Sequence to fold (1020 residues):
Amino acid sequence: MMAERPQIYHCLNSRQFSRPFVEEACRLADMARMIGKTKAGMEFLSTVFNDKRAMLFFTQPSTRTFLSFFSACQILGMHCAEVRDSRTSSEVKGESEEDTLRTFSSFFDLIIMRHYEAGLAETIAALLDQTERPVPVINAGSGKDQHPTQALLDIYTLKRCFQAQGGIDGKCIAFVGDLLRGRTIRSLSLLLSKYDDVKMVFVAPSAFQAGRDILSSLEEEGVSYQLEEDFESVIPRVDAIYMTRLQDEWDKEGHASSTIDMNRYSFQARHLALLRPHAVLLHPLPRRQEIAPEVDGDPRAVYWRQVRNGMWIRVALIALIFQRQERIIEYFQQADRRER
Amino acid sequence: MMAERPQIYHCLNSRQFSRPFVEEACRLADMARMIGKTKAGMEFLSTVFNDKRAMLFFTQPSTRTFLSFFSACQILGMHCAEVRDSRTSSEVKGESEEDTLRTFSSFFDLIIMRHYEAGLAETIAALLDQTERPVPVINAGSGKDQHPTQALLDIYTLKRCFQAQGGIDGKCIAFVGDLLRGRTIRSLSLLLSKYDDVKMVFVAPSAFQAGRDILSSLEEEGVSYQLEEDFESVIPRVDAIYMTRLQDEWDKEGHASSTIDMNRYSFQARHLALLRPHAVLLHPLPRRQEIAPEVDGDPRAVYWRQVRNGMWIRVALIALIFQRQERIIEYFQQADRRER
Amino acid sequence: MMAERPQIYHCLNSRQFSRPFVEEACRLADMARMIGKTKAGMEFLSTVFNDKRAMLFFTQPSTRTFLSFFSACQILGMHCAEVRDSRTSSEVKGESEEDTLRTFSSFFDLIIMRHYEAGLAETIAALLDQTERPVPVINAGSGKDQHPTQALLDIYTLKRCFQAQGGIDGKCIAFVGDLLRGRTIRSLSLLLSKYDDVKMVFVAPSAFQAGRDILSSLEEEGVSYQLEEDFESVIPRVDAIYMTRLQDEWDKEGHASSTIDMNRYSFQARHLALLRPHAVLLHPLPRRQEIAPEVDGDPRAVYWRQVRNGMWIRVALIALIFQRQERIIEYFQQADRRER
Fold:
């Protein structure tokens, strides 16, 4: 029975997520957050993983993603330790990254890692699989490459927003900003391609338009997409707008972002009038000038809810990785029955 | 019934504390520490907030205050996360402080913050109150301005010391040292003015004497105070001496503290003979040369007890903010009954 | 009954460990790890210290030792706080180390400290013993001097490895590498001298041969030892090889390690053929070139197990310090009875 279930062990790449897996994760996240509304429910959740401990190994800093995972672990009663920099210790000079990670795996039951280097999470996962004590690895962002849990939380947010509109199938989603270097675009567009009849509009100046690799992948999946430069003309005809910021921390690699006017790719208060009534505005945060703060109060601005959705979908992901979802589902159903 | 109860939601400023609130907090702190003397009691305390999580956002470093709050949260079973510097992440460059704090409030149920900037805690509290998910904010020290929980722990210490002397009413308290720039003086003197017939003596070289703003506040409250330069003459005639250190980290703002001889404002072993038998010596710590280490062994030196009182009064404060004091009171009364 | 039991309060120096104490700690570690194999067992362990909190004060960085202690505390349900640098706070400038540690002891029930300065743990332990609220101190490594819990975990590893060979008594153990400046050698060789008829071979270039102080101690204990320069000739005739790395962080003190060829003191894949079938290869980690990664897969390479043994022996040590071993023993015996 378990064997037929869609399942992730290491979570490395958004390509791993099948649509049934995503659906199950979203349902589980919904249940966990309902359970978490009462003190008794939070107490229950904190017993689900009170025998496990997680290492958060974040050499590429990200307060936001770190706190989201940390909170998800705390909610589940999983104790955490963090290493922000493996290179602090003078005695460690000369130790290989592999030895460092293998040491962590000796102490912990789960490794959540974020790293500048693309592909390191995969390497480590493969290495640990060959040891006496393998543990699952979650990729919390690697280089310009992948950020699978961000894609998962974005999908979860879109699903919740489109609950009354028949879900994600058939929707038109615009991606706006620095599409060349933003890894959230890569992960999310690939994941969206698993839904039926989704249309995508990539809105960016030509220098930052979505890369050939992303577009090829979409073509392979038969997804219809458009490339646009004029943001304002796109606003009235889409169901969701996904804003992103300029990834200028990668500028040293040859893109002179300062020469391009990105102000044309920001959402201003006056744009709210152009946005369809049921449409929603997302942003992975942190934002700079891409969305004016006056927009925050509009009910279609859902980026703050994205933050919280991220925490709950990570709760679900961890439960699924360890195949402990049944306990949560059971508690939810019992609580649900009690209430009726 | 609840509505009539003195109550704090955000804890920003010692002016917020009414005398009944302070009394209740002190009683509650006493109960919690009595409960905490047994393993069963500590286990009970750790269930009071096992459904809540706190963010300790300390951009102005303070190991002492940090550990005190951290310990208080741990005792109550409240999980903590810490951010020492919101600026670590390169991707965060350009995010507003408001967005950063709003992100934190998405993950946590309480924000405890310490910041160089006076007034930031107030700003953040007001901002969060306008969001879908407001959470309480505790000011753990802001600029030269306020440090309300320090004032609370000082009052708690004085109350415990004067238990056999009729409490704080009618006592004479000397403040000694850099009174111009020490924020503990500001918070504590204002709070003391809510007690009956308290007299204050401010002992400092003229360059560091208490500021006009503090004195005006006391005058408004009708508190009688004296300004003194000669420390030794003051020692024999007061009930409590509150020593403070030179705040030379503010020197760049124009006060050349190095030109003033502060040795005259330190408590030496020979001063113990001048101190009244029931009088007490306080210090917010850390100390430098303001109190000689040989004084530590004297029973009237209570600054180490202040440290521990700080932890317990913060336990009480958190319980009051969330209106969970009843559970603690109930447990205390039951345990008390069992013992008899 | 309790009074007759071998017992450690402060854990400062491997000289403190009697053989009965070591045996008891190893038995307890075995029990705890057996208990920890089930969720119910981990839940039980996390109640043994759910009323206590530990301060990990690590001014000499060591991710490995830190995580090992941190994990041990988490397994026992003991909440932790960490201070990596007591000097972060500008206001703290001028506070004595003694005041800092005394502050920590006000908030916590156990201090685990690692420091560059030899002897500081002893000083602090003596200071705390004179206060109103003494707490135990564990030395997690001090200067070039002592690292008692490393010695404990090494002994624990040897005991487990030699279970089918009659234990540690009578075995021949080679220490290889920078024996002059490695503190693990000092602690472990002294502890091994409490076993019967143990022989030691110190294998190093003359510039890094074991110091006179170690050798004198062994002579006092009547331990037979040899000094060797040729590593390969030693491999076939010993029961255990303890590899160590070059301690070049101490180079500034006058030892020019760069002029000496340490490659002769590394264990290569070809050496496996020389190693006796029942012999084992240890390393305190981190390693550099002292052991080739290809050796890792051999069952006689036990350094990764050492890491995990370290966590469990620290669980045992903490339980013994607080005399809470009985609860663990009782649970183990009940679980053992249930299984049969």
User: Anything to note?
Assistant: Chain C has two domains: 2-146+309-339, 148-306. Residues 1-6 of chain C have pLDDT under 50 and may be disordered. The CA atoms of residues 193 and 220 of chain C lie 10 Å apart.
